[in-house]
Amino acid sequence: MQTAIGYLVAARRYEIHELEQLNRTCELVHAVSALVHGLQAERGRSTVYRLPGDPCVAARWDESITASDSAKQNVLEGLEKIKPGDGLAGGSRLFTRIAIAVNALEDLPVIRDSVRRQTCTPAQSTERYNRVVGALLALVFEAADVTVDPTVSRLLVALLNLMQGKEFVGQERATGARVFAAGLVSADDLRFLTHLVEHQAQCFERFELFCGESILTQWQALEATMPLAEIARMRGMLRSKRFPVDSGLAVAWFEHCTRRINDIYLVETFLTTSLQQACRARVAHTQSALEDQQALLAALSSSEPLSALSAMIVGLDQGDSQVGALANDGTEPRLARAIADTLQTQTRQLQVVSEELAYVRAALDERKLIERAKGLLMAHQCLSEEQAYSQLRDQAMSQGRRLVEVAQAVVAAAGLLPTQP
User: Fold this and answer.
1) Is residue 218 part of a domain?
2) Average pLDDT of 199-217?
């Protein structure tokens, strides 16, 4: 019969397998981060493509495409390392998101061709890029949601919010550049820009909550150097609706926002590197624990067999009485103490991990609520995912409410939603 230590050894081996899978997922997230950044630059430059007064924009857009394609190749190579048959936790949801992201990436040639031939408006190209970036961010969310290690989970939640906040900055850059170039801002544009600014703040607040002291210090120092005053001044111009039709304003706005995005990406890159280091450290720590437990198992093999697993686990917190019970089974007292200590340590660790994961995953609940509301709208009104999200977003902007509040109302009224034939 398998002993308790035998089961603990098996648990450690499986934990190492999970962490190695997690490490590959974090490598993928690192590649996705670079691709998202590349696509954000590509999207931003597409809004000022062939802008009068700046003949270099088209060339820079072509450079962005080259960088994005290189990053895309890294993502595809990373996906090859994550095999469906490897028993990955939450694999069903993760692989669904991977499929959606890969399908979205296949639309890039069509999007680029429409920009190059100018068969779409800047607003339309921005919306198409948004769908691709959104699919990639959803993949990062799924990676955070299925994480089995609390330290890595916290960093993934921080990264997700930083990337989402940067995406809102990117959308603001694209919208503002389009508006400045046209010399006209509509009420819908203003509502959307306000929505983007508010959501940036919310994302960065959650990022600061989970990123850790070291990264937070770097983030705050970098924020002090960002062109936030210039961006705020130009936001004021947009709100006042008083600005000349001047392509130079569009270029200045674009450059200020780009500098901010690039600074955010510096922190994002450091965070993805920290993620991979955390994964490797956890694998090494767990491997060391496995070796210790294997040594115990080897010691047991030369002594009398222990009682069944159920007898071993009962009374773990009884201290010396548990050791005495083990010794009565024919185990040396010192070895019995080592077994009891190992079981107690593992029990405490499981409790801490469970509590930490519950705390971290609570931060993902808002995103899950929005996803559920989107699903309900898609099912009841035959909408695409993008249409469902747009409906939630437009309702939030028109009512002056947070997106999650609108999503919560949709979920609460699920039974009242009309069903399309």
Assistant:
1) yes
2) 90
Alpha carbons 371 and 389: distance in angstroms, whole number: 9
d(CA 245, CA 253) in angstroms, rounded, equals 13
Cβ neighbours of 213 (radius 10 Å): 7
CA-atom Rg of the chain in angstroms:
26
Q: Is residue 202 part of a domain?
A: yes
pLDDT-derived band at 148 (thresholds 50, 70, 90) equals low
Q: Are the beta carbons of 99 and 142 closer than 8 angstroms?
A: no
Quote the domain boundaries for residue 410. 365-416
The per-residue pLDDT for 11 is: 72
The DSSP string of 90-158 is THHHHHHHHHHHHHHHTTHHHHHHHHHTT-S-HHHHHHHHHHHHHHHHHHHHHHHHT---HHHHHHHHH
Domain-embedded: residue 298: no
- Residue ranges in 306-364 assigned as alpha helix (H): 309-313, 320-328, 333-362
Count Cβ atoms below 10 Å from residue 363 Cβ, excluding itself.
18
Within this chain, do residues 213 and 265 fall inside the same structural domain, yes or no? yes
CA distance 45 to 387: 25
Domain identity same for 342 and 235: no
Residue type, 396: A
Coil vs helix vs strand at 241: coil
What does the pLDDT look like over 296-330, one tens digit per residue? 556 655 554 444 333 333 344 444 444 454 445 44
Q: What is the per-residue pLDDT for 299?
A: 61
Tokens representing residue 398 in the block:
């028109």
**Which residue from 39, 100, 97 is spatially nearest to 71, judged by alpha carbons?**
39
Q: Are residues 342 and 375 in the same domain?
A: no
- 378, 382, 385, 390: CA torsion to nearest 10: -90
Distance CA 167, CA 206 (A): 15
20 or 270: which leads in pLDDT: 270
Residue 12 lies in a domain: no
Q: Report the alpha-carbon distance of residue 101 to residue 89 in Å, rounded.
A: 19
Cα–Cα dist 250/265, whole Å: 22
For residues 349 and 327, membership in a common domain is answered with yes
% of the chain with per-residue pLDDT over 90: 25
